[in-house]
Amino acid sequence: MDINLTDLDQSYLAMMLKPEDDRLRLHYYDALADSELFVLLEREPKASDIDPKVFALEGGPLVLVFDVEERLSAFTGAAAPYAALPGRVIATALVGQGVGLGINLGVASAMILPPSAVQWLADTLAHQPAQDEGRPKFFHPPQALPAELMRVLTHKLSRIGALADYALLGGVEYEGGRRGHLLAFVDANQNAEAALAKTATEALTFSGLDAGTLDVTFLASGDRGLEMLKKVGQRVDWSKPQGPSPKDAPSAPGSNPKKPPILRQRGRIV
Questions:
Q1: For residue 101, how far is the Cα from the chain centroid?
Q2: Residue 158 lies in a domain
Q3: pLDDT tens per residue across span 100-147
Q4: 3 state SS for 73-122
Q5: How many domains does one find in the chain?
Q6: Is the pTM for the entire model greater than 0.90?
Q7: Which of 94, 139, 144, 190 has its CA 20 to 30 A from that of 79?
């Protein structure tokens, strides 16, 4: 089976080359959260009712996921039911069930995450950015930010597509004297503002800068603040895949946060 290296493969290899590097381990978890994963099921899914096949192993029960459909087929050796879900959805759905994740078993990038690691990932992804109101006094060019933050940010934004035209990054000083950095999304889809803010927060965490801060705001073309920020800010662009807009795209089981998948455990396979 000839498959190009996936994002998950590449982050796994980098992590294994430098196992002491916490930053590279964070990259792996980031790739796992953002990847579409194929979950091996006990039976065909019915609407949002998903019944994963649970393997009872000596080290504890596992649900198996693969980042390429062909890898799942090669593992089972026959046609098998599956559901394609984002890694973040799977981790969140498994919280509290005492089940680990077997990832890409049977290939070089095989990994087993115990329930504690699944819990950590879900807890990290559940973190919501704090809301605050501040009045910018003036903007200035951004100070040197780690290149790693910008890499992770643009990579994550490219995964969620055309939810805003672009962003501007600048230094800011607020009334009261507080200084920091501001990321302004321009002409964002109003329904996507929470997702964009969360993406910026996750970029800080998974780049190893969770102790840092990055304020996020949303501006429309013609806003006075946007015109001021354009003069000193750094433009941030990301690839925007062609295709149906998010509102028109078909939804997979678990992709609607208001209807999370129900992961049932009716039986365990040894």
A1: 17
A2: yes
A3: 999 999 998 999 999 999 999 999 998 887 777 778 889 999 887 778
A4: HHHHCCCCCEEEEEHHHHHHHHCCCCCEEEECCCCCCCEEECHHHHHHHH
A5: 2
A6: no
A7: 94
